[in-house]
Design goal:
Organism: Streptomyces argenteolus
EC number: 5.3.1.14
CATH topology: TIM Barrel
Number of strands: 10
Shape: globular
Strand order of the largest sheet: 1-2-3-4-6-8-9-10
Protein name: L-rhamnose isomerase
InterPro entries: L-rhamnose_isomerase, Rhamnose_iso-rel, Xyl_isomerase-like_sf, Xyl_isomerase-like_TIM-brl
GO molecular function: L-rhamnose isomerase activity
Bound molecules: D-allose, zinc ion
Order of helices and strands: HEHEHEHEEHEEHEHEHEHHHHHH
Helix content: 40-55%
CATH architecture: Alpha-Beta Barrel
């Protein structure tokens, strides 16, 4: 796409969903560093997400996490989101923080534990009904640590059975997004370790089941853009969990560690129709901000995704196709690199200006005084954190 007005239109319509847990205190297993002004409840998490949307204009959806965002009244939470110009995005289920799930949740050998896990997933669908959320996000920590610990194929049978029950419960406009992850917390055999396993289960389940690609969940060197191209071609890419990794599931800001990889991913998204509304790809962030201020970090993550998208959209498609047809390897690669090496910040500043926003959302937020305001107002109560 080289027509600038079409590029701008695509950038204006891209929606990036931010995670409620990205606004709370988080850390590693060594230490959680508390920050002043962090939300004390899900309502305040929404207020922080609204700040990101106010300054970027492209982040009107917020993923919730159950139980961390469990409230008495989901209608009130949804109403608050609407007042803030937001809507509720994916409901993230959690079957990984209960003692009963030590040996697994939906793949646990004991049917009573499997029942408890499936009941939680069904509760998440009830919350989707109450909040208007379109997506149930499933990530399972299930797996084994030692050879022989459990029957690998048997665990797949139990997983398939649980997924089928939850799939049946989905409404017409609701989807199930199945996420995979190579390892951690299980170190020998994870039950949904890769896109192939997730894809095979989703294919059996039906059209409402799609795969989530979390960019931090692969072995080093994995060609993630290939996975993206394949899943889009099959109509099975449901969403991204964007974040950056240097080593494993680092959950750092999207585009921070490897902006070139994010560009290559967005190129495959763009050429395979993933920016078209009908493909319904949900561009989510799944990040934790352990040592940096949270709202500014989410703003930067959103703009990093936008920059990668803008560069991908600027690729000269006809020059690329001509080079590919003629087998001119260096010219084809050159077309891609020209786009990647373009400074798209002025273009995005123009896009924002046309939307009535400040040209630099990061600077505008810092100048707004919100950070100081929440630090002085949000005192007392329990500061919400990862897992709180
Ligand atoms: C876990 O590693 C996954 O990335 C999940 O997406 C998880 O549900 C999310 O990080 C919130 O806990
Ligand atoms: Zn994730
Ligand atoms: Zn993860």
């Amino acid at each position: 796409m080289s027509d600038v007005s079409a590029v701008k239109a695509a950038l204006k319509s891209q929606v990036i969903e931010t995670p409620s847990w990205g606004y709370g205190n988080s850390g590693t297993r060594f230490k959680v560093f508390a920050q002043p002004g962090v939300p004390r409840d899900p309502f305040e998490k929404l207020a922080d997400a609204a700040q990101v949307n106010t300054y970027t204009g492209v982040a009107p959806k917020v993923s919730l996490h159950i139980p961390w965002d469990r409230v008495e009244d989901y209608t009130a939470l949804t109403r608050r989101a609407e007042e803030l110009g937001l809507r509720i995005g994916a409901i993230n289920s959690n079957v990984f923080q209960d003692d009963d799930f030590k040996l697994g949740s939906v793949t646990h050998p004991d049917p009573k534990v499997r029942r408890k896990a499936v009941d939680h997933l069904l509760e998440c669908v009830d919350i989707m009904d109450a909040t208007g959320s379109p997506d149930l996000k499933l990530w399972f920590s299930d797996g084994t640590n030692y050879p022989g610990q459990d029957d690998i194929a048997g665990r797949q049978d139990r997983l398939a059975e649980a997924l089928a029950e939850v799939y049946e419960r989905l409404g017409d406009d609701q989807r199930m997004l199945l996420e995979y992850k190579l390892f951690e917390p299980a170190f020998y055999a994870t039950d949904v370790p890769d896109w192939g396993t997730a894809y095979a289960h989703c294919l059996k389940l039906g059209p409402k089941a799609k795969v989530v690609v979390d960019t931090g969940h692969h072995a080093p060197g994995t060609n993630i853009e290939f996975i993206v191209a394949f899943l889009l071609r099959e109509g099975k890419l449901g969403a991204f969990d964007f974040n950056s990794r240097f080593y494993a599931d680092d959950d750092l800001m999207a585009g921070a560690a490897d902006p070139f990889q994010l560009f290559r991913i967005m190129h495959e998204v763009a050429v395979n129709g993933g920016l078209e509304p009908e493909t319904d790809v949900n561009f989510m962030l799944d990040q934790c901000h352990n040592i940096e201020a949270k709202i500014p970090a989410v703003i930067r993550s959103v703009t990093n995704v936008q920059e990668a998208t803008a560069k991908a959209l600027l690729i000269d498609a006809s020059a690329l196709a001509a080079a590919q047809r003629s087998g001119d390897v260096l010219a084809a690669n050159g077309v891609l690199m020209d786009a990647f090496n373009t400074d798209v910040r002025p273009l995005l500043a123009e896009v924002r200006e046309e939307l009535g926003l400040a040209r630099d959302p990061f600077a505008a937020y810092l100048a707004s005084g919100n950070q100081e305001r929440i630090a002085s107002e949000r005192v007392g109560g329990e500061q919400a954190g990862w897992g709180a």
